[in-house]
Amino acid sequence: MAPRVQLEKAAWRWVESVRPEDIQREHIEIAYRICVPACKRGACRRNCKGNPNCLVGIGEHAWLGEIDENTFHNIDDPNSERRDKNTFVGLTNLGATCYVNTFLQVWFHNLELRRTLYLCQNARAEEHNMDSDYEPRSICEHLQYLFALLQNSNRRYIDPSGLVKALGLDTGQQQDAQEFSKLFLSLLEDTLSKQKNPNLHNVIQQQFCGQMSYVTVCNQCGRASPLPSRFYELELNIQGHKNLTECVTEFLKEEKLDGDNRYFCESCQSKQNAARRIKLHSLPRVLNLQLMRFVFDRQTGHKKKLNTFISFPEQLDMGPFLEEKGICVYELSAVLIHRGVSAYSGHYIAHVRDARTSDWYKFNDEEIEKMEGKKLQLGIEEDIAETVKSQTRKPKCSKGYHCSRNAYMLVYKCQREEDTDPMETNVEVPGFLGRLVDRDNRKFEEWCLEMADMRKQSVDKGKAKHEEVKELYELLPAEDGQEYEFVPLEWLKKWLDDSTVTKEIDNGNFLCSHGKLHPDKVGEAKRISVKAAELLFDKYGGGPRLDGSTLCEECVGQRCRVLRLKNQLAEDYKEVTNLLVKITITFDEGYWAGKTSLRSWRQLALEQLEEDEEETKHSNGKTNGEGPEITATKDEEEMKTFNEDILCRHGGLSILESERRLVTEEVWSKLRVYFPKAPQFTQLQEPCQQCLRLEREGKENEALNRMMASEQKSSLLNLFQEKNRPTLTKWPQETDILYIVPLFFVDEWRRFIRRPTKTTPVSSVGNSLLLCPHRGFMFTFDSMLKGDAQHIALLWPDEWEVISRHFLVDQPISICRISGATPNELTVCVCPELCRDCREGFIFQQQRDMREYAQATVYVRKVIDDKRLKDAAPEMNVSGSEAEDEREEPVAKVDGERDPDFSQSEDGAKRQKLSDGTVSAAASPTPMASGGKSGIRRSTRHRKLRGEKALIVSANQTLKELKIQIMHAFSVAPFDQNLSIDGRCLTDDSATLGSLGVIPESVICLKVRTLPILDLCMPEEGFKGKDIF
């Protein structure tokens, strides 16, 4: 079949020779492609959307061949959830609980621990009514029930969410697995110690607890001071070691205590050099060896994983490491693996040896895999989630040894003769737990039957649908000469797609504004036989029904007119262009046309024709001539049509003759065919009188503004040029009175003087900006010497007289000098007087704002050897806007003035105003009050230095939270940070920044505590606040 574009062209090719008033039925059917041949099966790769008769590739292939019953449902075989024979049960990963699952599997395979848990008293489970679900409450009850399900459940995996919820663990956050092991065993030990059966009290100690002592020997007198201790696992450093023996040897290695680390000997009664070591006295039945892969890197401030290969044996002789030498052989029973290169992510799995059969199994949450040949196989685990940089060659291992860079815990079990006794390896589930497991197994079997029944119902429904589709699809094609109807293509596809629910047939989107089938929508519909349409509408309903009588003659006629005009446009464009070149206008015969419109009239005509096409389209299903509601957007309102460029805002002819020209009546008649609604102006049309009057008035106002600006500039030349300005720092000798106006007024006035024709004249002086509601002055003399100078401008008395004549002043403000007791003493008074109550309220509100800020900027500056970076240059990577602001506002250096960008004032001045006498250095006085160099203003933008970074903080944020931000910005750990402001140290981590006096724009000095960079274990805080903690 021809492509869709070719079908579109063929459907309207007849318009070249047929006028709209001559359209016949055959032309309408060609436009709706009624006679386009239908496609045969195999001829199209996909459905031809441009052909309403093509019924191939709409999803029928899934029903016309052999049908696989599995396609009728999406229900997995329930038997896939059933536990295989002679295998173990897995545990569901609840998000990030794989580390919990690994330990639960290891502890489940500790037969002595499992037997002990089964002996715990559980009155709730023993008396439970089997008609309701059993919900454990205590940790012991959860673990009992979980182990019973792991032993006798028919499910392939079970859900441990009950136990995880009881422990208070966050299922979405992966915690430290080693820390979890310690805390859980401690919790279990405490639980068992409260059991009534005394034989259960010391089971955890018997299984996991060993004895050791820290022995310190004085080098002077030789006195040994032992400190006995218990351990549940040995934490072995692996950095720099290759095998397990080296790790244990270093753990027991003697440590020298000398220098500042000397030991206080009670016999010598003084600090002496000494030696300290660990002595192992007894080992537990189950020896847990923690390989310290996760360490804290002080250089980065984060934990990291050590991907070091460590070799470990299947049989471990710990005899040589005991104080009482002897045979103490352990056999490897479990290896816990962390896959991944990061300490903050990855996946945990466990390799566990079955105590009964000695077979090795890999436990990976729900998936359990039995190792071949009763051997531990770690090879595949070492190839996963390793980056190219971290890949190192795996060392060769001797027979009986294994090598891993992902193992983080090794579990060894002491070899005993009774371990081979069948009575010891057989653990029976108690009767009360067995009944609960049997009930859960019955529920599982019922679920399997229910799923199997649902599968059967889906298959039966699919077979019935199969027969329906085969029957109806054969009836769909409409034969030539027979009656037909249209249905949506998308509905047919969904009808043939069994995965979706078949809705009623909706033809509403295919209607034109006349309530009939729109010719542009025929490509989205399919023409089917009336018999097939009757069956589909009877079963699924819907409407409106679209048959042969709904082909819209009005839409076809409109499209015919538009297409003919488009074809004629090229010829008319050439003719109009030629006529415009050799134009001759006689009196009273011409028409005004916009020059811009004439240059682009061809494009405007095309847009107008396309707009006419859109008018026939309909998309909201309204009929009976009721078209879609059209909301005019801003773009549509601004869109120009022909001659709008010479239309003034009053609807008349524009007064700008340079933007229009005369055209002949012949040219205008051709243009009117394409723009029947365009504004029409004859040669005799007068320009808009309102525009002419406004133009005259505008020119008169501009002349007045120029005259006014010139007069005011000559009268106030020094004020305009900022020359010979009075200052408060050194009162001028020639006058005892000065006047005050807002600096805003002066800035606006200068703007008018520079551009009198482009800006509005300034008519009044609004001194009320500087007054309180009681009409009192808001600034003290000291504050005007400092930060408040940025709000005011000082005037000479003669300047004030000029201001009073030219401008309306709401309230004069003056400041007078009063002779003091000594010549150097200066006393002033302000009229109106200072309103002290409002001033105090203003200062209080200002200070409050400084203490209650949010999302403010502070600057952290890294210093070295207590020296601030005074000689550092500003950073060059500032934005273009910053650089532009700095160019516009260069900094004036006054003798003796300290640059606030490079150091803070010794008297504790901040960058924002705190009180009358405490203001920011950045908000320095303007030249009018500070006596700076004429014409120069200081920039208020903070200029960053090398070694300085900006942070966003809030007043209620604690110092500890700020230190964490600094750690991310400077890679300095919080405990290595010494922070200070103006020499005042910030030490209280729990205090808020507002209470510590940290205000917006403050500069905080950061000094890094210099210590050797070591890899240390970071205390784990992930379980803080959890029930397990």
TrEMBL record:
Ranges of biased composition (kind: Basic and acidic residues): 889-914
Domain DUSP, residue spans: 457-552
This protein's record includes keyword Cytoplasm: yes
Keywords for the protein's UniProt record, in alphabetical order: Cytoplasm, Hydrolase, Nucleus, Protease, Repeat, Thiol protease, Ubl conjugation pathway
Domain Ubiquitin-like: 953-1009
Subcellular location field: Cytoplasm; Nucleus
GO MF: cysteine-type deubiquitinase activity; cysteine-type endopeptidase activity
USP domain location: 89-415
Origin superkingdom: Eukaryota
Keyword Repeat tagged: yes
Gene3D superfamilies, A to Z: Cysteine proteinases
Principal localisation: cytoplasm
Broad enzyme group: hydrolase
One Gene Ontology biological process: protein deubiquitination
Renumbered residue ranges of the record's region Disordered: 609-630, 873-941
Annotated Gene Ontology cellular component terms: cytosol; nucleus
CDD domains on file: Peptidase_C19L, Ubl_USP48
Reactions this protein catalyses: Thiol-dependent hydrolysis of ester, thioester, amide, peptide and isopeptide bonds formed by the C-terminal Gly of ubiquitin (a 76-residue protein attached to proteins as an intracellular targeting signal)
Record-listed E.C. numbers: 3.4.19.12
Assigned protein family: Belongs to the peptidase C19 family.
PANTHER family: UBIQUITIN CARBOXYL-TERMINAL HYDROLASE (PTHR24006), UBIQUITIN CARBOXYL-TERMINAL HYDROLASE 48 (PTHR24006:SF722)
Protein name, entry field: Ubiquitin carboxyl-terminal hydrolase 48
